[in-house]
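Translate sequence into structure tokens.
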Amino acid sequence: MKYSNDPKEIIRKLTESRALLFSLFESIPESKWYEKSLYDGKWSVNDILLHIVGWDIESLRVAKNYISHSEPKLLEIDQDEYNEIFLKNHYTKNKEDGIKMLRESTKDIFDFLNGIDEETTKYAIKNKSLEDLDLYTHDIEHYEYIKKVLK
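Result follows.
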């Protein structure tokens, strides 16, 4: 899988994938929102949404470090442990809270990418500094899985 490092391309791809996710999440009834019906009964729709938000936040942090020419300090825990900690610390009261969090994390990524100048874009493309923000494939994998299981 080839990931993009061009801010405009990442924005284009995320605009597409997030439109699909928002449409899907908004269509799921609140009654199914917290059911542990996904990934062998381990995750709810809310858990997946928060997982996506968590990776938005972490990917943005890493990309900002790359762009500032500093070595990104990657988390010293594995993906499952990160997900577990994030879900515990970011519980949502309802579906709307979760969707709002995803809108905010998406906006933060877009704001960051839109603020990158031409010189930084060249640096990012050359050094593959933004590929952590190319979350399109991640989004689509969750979108297709949820749609298949819940629809």
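Note: The longest helix spans residues 45-67.
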